[in-house]
Specification:
Shape: elongated
Strand order of the largest sheet: 1-2-3
Structural class: mainly alpha
Number of helices: 8
Strand content: 5-15%
Helix content: 40-55%
Radius of gyration: 17 Å
Number of strands: 3
Length: 162
């Protein structure tokens, strides 16, 4: 369990508060988009100064929207990187686009890590069915990939698609 940061507190901060703890770098975006993309610095790279975790985004032509998306990606990185003792989930179900999703995801991963990424054991502790847990994981491709990577590191087979 990695306790160098108060992960849950960081995940509950709004964009302004989290932004105050970070350094931002604005650069020209890469890829398709034509002349406008090559002339403006709309791509955003954010680095949390205390942990060094970074995230970036350049999907939009709006620097503000890219900044918001980069902060969302940074929250997800916190959820993936830092484990704690399992605590109750903020809610049984949480949409991927909901503001509480990174915290929900982090706590779900805490339960999975405590069960050594055995879906059956984690589902029993959460009072869920294994198929329900698999569906919750599968709807987020990054989360699904991360869980299967952790299972592979432990010599477990990949999760079956629901």
């Amino acid at each position: 369990m990695n306790e160098i940061v108060d992960r849950d507190r960081l995940l509950m901060l709004d964009d302004r508060e989290l932004g105050e703890l970070c350094q931002f770098e604005f650069v020209k975006g890469t890829g398709a988009g034509g002349q406008h993309r090559n002339r403006t610095c709309t791509a955003v790279r954010v680095r949390h100064t205390a942990t060094g975790l970074t995230a970036s985004d350049c999907t939009e032509r709006s620097q503000l929207r890219n900044r918001t998306e980069a902060l969302r990606k940074l929250r997800f990185r916190f959820a993936l990187e830092y484990r704690r003792e399992p605590q109750p989930l903020p809610r049984a179900e949480c949409a991927v686009t909901h503001a509480d999703y990174p915290l929900w995801c982090a706590r779900l991963l805490d339960h999975l890590a405590a069960a050594d990424f055995d879906l059956k054991s984690a589902a029993e502790k959460l009072a869920w069915r294994v198929s329900g847990l698999a569906k919750k994981l599968y709807r987020d491709p990054a989360l699904w990939q991360y869980v299967n990577q952790c299972r592979a590191e432990r010599g477990l087979p990949p999760c079956r698609r629901p």
